[in-house]
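Section: Multi-chain targets

For targets with more than one molecule, the full set of components is provided together so that the structure can be written out for the assembly as a whole rather than chain by chain. Components appear in the order listed by the source. The example entry contains three components.
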Amino acid sequence: SGWVTQTEFNTKVAALESYDYNLGGAMDSAWLCLCGALVMFMHAGFAMLETGSCRVKNASNVLMKNLVNVCVGTLGWWVFGWAFAYGDQGTPKNGFIGTSEFFGIGFYTTDATTGVITPSTCDSSGCQSKMLSWFFQWAFCTAGATIVSGGVAERVKSPTYAVYAFFMASFIYPIIVAWSWGGGFLATITSVGYMDFAGSGVVHLTGGVSALAGTIVLGPRKGRFENPEEFECHNLPLVVLGTFALWFGWYGFNPGSTLGMHDGATGALAAQVAMNTTLSAATGGITVFLLRYLILKKYDVGGLCNGILAGLVSITAGCGNVECGSAFAIGLVGAFVYQASSMLLQKLKIDDPVDAAPVHGFCGIWGVLAAGFLDWGKGVDHYHGWSGFGCVMDGAACKTGLFGDAIGAQFALIAMVIIWSGALSGLAFFALKMTGLLRISEEVEEVGIDTKSHSPPKAYSLSQ
Amino acid sequence: QKYDSLVETRRLQTASYVSLDTFNTEVQALKNADYSLGGAMDSAWLCLCGALVMFMHAGFAMLETGSCRAKNASNVLMKNLVNVTVGTLGWWVFGWAFAYGSQGDPANGFIGTSEFFGIGFYTIDETTGVITPLASCDADGCQSKMLSWFFQWAFCTAGATIVSGGVAERVKSPTYAVYAFFMASFIYPIIVAWSWGGGWLATVLDVGYMDFAGSGVVHLTGGVSALLGTIVLGPRKGRFENPEEFECHNLPLVVLGTFALWFGWYGFNPGSTLGMHDGATGAMAAQVAMNTTLSAATGGITVFILRYAIMKKYDVGGLCNGILAGLVSITAGCGNVECGSAFAIGLIGALVYQASSMLLQKLKIDDPVDASPVHGFCGIWGVLAAGLFDWGKGVDHYHGWSGFGCMPVSDSDSTCQTGIGGTAIGAQCILIIMVILWAGTLSGIAFFALKMTGLLRIDEYTEEVGMDVKQHSPPKAYAIGANPMPTEVEKTV
Amino acid sequence: QKYDSLVETRRLQTASYVSLDTFNTEVQALKNADYSLGGAMDSAWLCLCGALVMFMHAGFAMLETGSCRAKNASNVLMKNLVNVTVGTLGWWVFGWAFAYGSQGDPANGFIGTSEFFGIGFYTIDETTGVITPLASCDADGCQSKMLSWFFQWAFCTAGATIVSGGVAERVKSPTYAVYAFFMASFIYPIIVAWSWGGGWLATVLDVGYMDFAGSGVVHLTGGVSALLGTIVLGPRKGRFENPEEFECHNLPLVVLGTFALWFGWYGFNPGSTLGMHDGATGAMAAQVAMNTTLSAATGGITVFILRYAIMKKYDVGGLCNGILAGLVSITAGCGNVECGSAFAIGLIGALVYQASSMLLQKLKIDDPVDASPVHGFCGIWGVLAAGLFDWGKGVDHYHGWSGFGCMPVSDSDSTCQTGIGGTAIGAQCILIIMVILWAGTLSGIAFFALKMTGLLRIDEYTEEVGMDVKQHSPPKAYAIGANPMPTEVEKTV
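Its structure, encoded as tokens over all components, is:
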């Protein structure tokens, strides 16, 4: 007849809905695969930045440390890391640690009779396979672990560091994720829960604190504070290249942390994040550069590079819930935090070859705090946090008076990260030191690790 | 019996037919879902393409550094970093507002005057505190202002950084930083306001200019400014007496930079569809990617062969600049020419580059990285080529911004306008002239005024020993090898 | 009266119910919108993945340059640049047509014969001049030919560039350029025509070959050709007498190149879904990304440990090649194996690489960057592994191209075929043999003919002093430090 029956209507509408649902799933996958690849490219950035910043006689070794870090870290993440971080925390949730999906087991279900494999875990707005999350979060995990490699460069024993990197990627970092992004106890602490959009605290502070612990336990490189000019970076173009690669990769790190891309609001949030990231990076860079010029009366390109990274780390927690003016302020203050903490370490004669702790640790702290203090709902006494453009709701209206709780949650996150990764990394490094496994011998340090333990024995032979 | 059949009809209708209300609700919901997906697509596309364009800064930095002398390597790196950081602030404070802010009603056609500091990108509901990101919506989807800001930011700073190559190794660094801010916050945005921002060039001669991704708007602007800068500055000391001392000091960096730029260009050109929510846009992006590829490859190999014919030596730097010449040449017309034309555009672009590069040498104008031949002269050629090779020409139609379709008679009449090919080329010429006049005049005046006040050029001694050792900490870019740099200088400085 | 009220009811119902016409129109419009969105997604995905693959050229260039000697650095850089530019033209003129052009009806299964020069990628309406990009459509969406051309271009030139590593430091540059054109326009496209292009290998032994992203089609083709080239050329002078002189001259470039390749592989493998318009494809891409990651890391650390066990020294270059070995090994099977298998494939791939690398050393075959162990031998292993580790094996089903599902009995019967595991491995072996025969024979003949005519290898003097100083302008890749290169040579040359 000329009329539409309910059955026909329902069938066709369901088909269209499922098509949309499918498209949303495809979008999520495309977005996270590409953003994950960008984050992975940050390893190139770290490797170039750290290598360029160290002395030529250890260049091969620094390169190696970065490569070993990502390889070993990948296996750590696969074997244990994912399971601890995102595995099932039981019912009721223990809030501390996941205990399933080691080795990626359980990412698929296989139909026993037909042999058809079904990979997905779905929610109402689209499907994301576990593999997708595994891949995207893998890039974050190995990035966090690699931060430490800069702090301990040029004097740590390589096999020792490899073991530590495995430990970092398979246990230290994943547990912090289990508490926070994995939905553990920090997610609901002080009722509001912590807010760390892309990981100023979860990733960078974890790495930065561990780097600081490592560099303190190791002690400075021989002669570092007697002949500082011998410790200048040996290849500045690599440093700048590394900085640009990191900045580039950060557009996967921050915007990708929407963790999906299947509606317009998420798209607007990603754009907002990209804009804030850009502003804070530029502000941080130029601010440190000017500060250093005032102090040194010399141009310090390495300082400019670290300033950019300081800006990026500072905005990473709050990029989704602050206005662009606040992003400028966060980058500006972050630059001061970086410069002050860098000078403090110098004063305390703590030798951090690439300023890993000031950039990732101190600015990580500032970033987490800034995400609470500069939340854009503050002006009207609302808190937005994870809700992005919307406010944290109390029924149909915005909850008010959350400021104290929100800041409290941020402090809880900072304290927990410092305690957990500081204590574990500190213990690990200290135990290694006691057993003599931590630091290379004086002779090796003198002639350089490359000559002593590498084949070929030097990173460059430009004049052949 | 009639009665019975009517009762039956009614029963069926009530029981299992669909009411218009239900229908409309469902259809609207589905449309909303599609609309929302389209918005997500646009955001994903432009965020990622913008990131690729941003990576071009790595390319510029490596290319320019590698092309200069080792003694100024730190300084060239710094110039690129300062450029992007200062340029970002310039774009945020003034640039976006001048380029894409409201031009009033009726539009003044010349300059935007709202949204400085990104103010007005969100509206906040007074009572609930809910923030709504301001978006420009059309029938097909919404794009937030932040998205456009980010994507256009990458273009703005890329344009500004072109100049840094032309003035390298002799300009005073703080002076250049101020200029870069001026470039990113005023010179470039005004040209955008006239063109992409919907100003007067968009409708000039009725047909309007056509510059898909910015051969004119971005590259010519940068190239002309670089040319003026390099002329006013004068050549580096000894450049034409001892040319072999001015060869690039690190060729792998040059090649790496070229590949990074080529890679970034796949954000620059295909991303200039400015959206990605339907199949036709997708096909356009693919078309653009293909043309970009062909022109780059053709330009590279052509310059390489030309130089070999001239010098009987392989010139890898020339190959790299040839690739860039091909890329700049296709940037305006990548969306409205066939692939055979893309080949021709790259080929001619290579000749344009080589000829203008030799011309500058002849005129003893010292452009360290050939910024003005690559971006300026090939930029001119690119804008012209977009008019000359428009694929509607064979049938006397003009496609221009309409892409696969022809330019229609009017909004309501979709038949093709005919006989506008000449007018279209006229509009292209106007774009070229206006960019040269505006950017040339302003940059020229700026550089000249600075020269007069002695703020422009470093002193001779610094130029002799190198900026790195004089002004930088650490005093050299490399510490590779036993005796990497003249240490006596370091000690005497 | 009752009758009247019924008429009235009916009238109202008529007004507020939905007619089938309206309904169908609306549903069709929504389907079109979805279909269009799907097309946009495909384009965005393949444009971006293609760009990532293109960036692998930066990786190859840096890796190969860093691995060679400083005196030939410019020349190696040039070879990579020439390769991509000449290869692009080869792909445009002939390659695409042979690979993906129409194979006739019925398909000849061996070679395509249409769409040279990209002719036929658009249809132009004679009267209106409106251009329609030609597209291949299926039930879920349309992809323009330009999109496929671009994505496959990146694969083609990547395959060709593999050879450049194997013949580095001793092949005559113009000769290599001609070979690269031949490779990109004929050798590689024919293999594609047999396989991805839907030729005879797609249905060989009924089950057909399985090579998701090209362990065989791309890497083995390149690796075999590199091996033939390096054998015919013979070793570099002094290679096995003074091996320490042949160590890589710039390790940071090698590592940078490795990371760039790994990064680009996320376009190479996940992009080989060749589309992205439904959730299952998305899950497949994620699966592929995860497997790629695991195999790369496993391969890298395994080779590193092996080499340390053998040499008691850290070998960073070995770690880099191990990563590449893992990547090449997983490329064929990344879509139809579990993550545990990906670990195993990377592990065994590392052993295959190390064993074949040592074998070549033993046989005194000098492959400067280990191109054939990495791409050739691991390519063979990758193709085999895709058959051996197929995740349907445990229940005697084969998944292959069907991804998560099993290979069905026929198009109409979706139950799983059983007992085809052995046949599938047979098909894999046929793919391997055919690639080796085709690429090996053609490359071998080409290199041998060139050798006979004296066009293949540079003269001894050039090899001694380096190609850069002899043939390049500038005559050296680096000018870092006071006395970077023996200037006497420069002057005597």
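The two ends of chain C are 115 Å apart (CA to CA).
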